[in-house]
Amino acid sequence: GARVRDDLRLVQEALExxxxxxxxxxxxxxxxxxxxxxxxxxxxxxxxxxxLLQQESNLxxxxxxxxxxxxxxxxxxAVRKQAADLLRALRTHQAQEADLIFETFYTDIGAGD
Length: 113
Hints:
Blueprint: H1 2-23, H2 28-31, H3 36-68, H4 76-109
């Protein structure tokens, strides 16, 4: 239980650092050319940040129920699914950010020059 709790805390801390960095005044989102198309995509990534934090928090809450109430048997299948959903959402978000960075870079030095 303690290892899972510690690992999940590390995920939360890494996610919070990423969000702070990406959304800061000199962060990733500020560096991107915010054309209307890019603005919509950046806004979606910002919404994803909120959703990812909520998914991580929900998973923590679910696990806390089992650690705090000794007579409750965890539904390991449900917890495993929640963890897999969070991991999939994190990977999708990472890929979308990478696509946006690549597209911005390509637009800056690519076909228009």
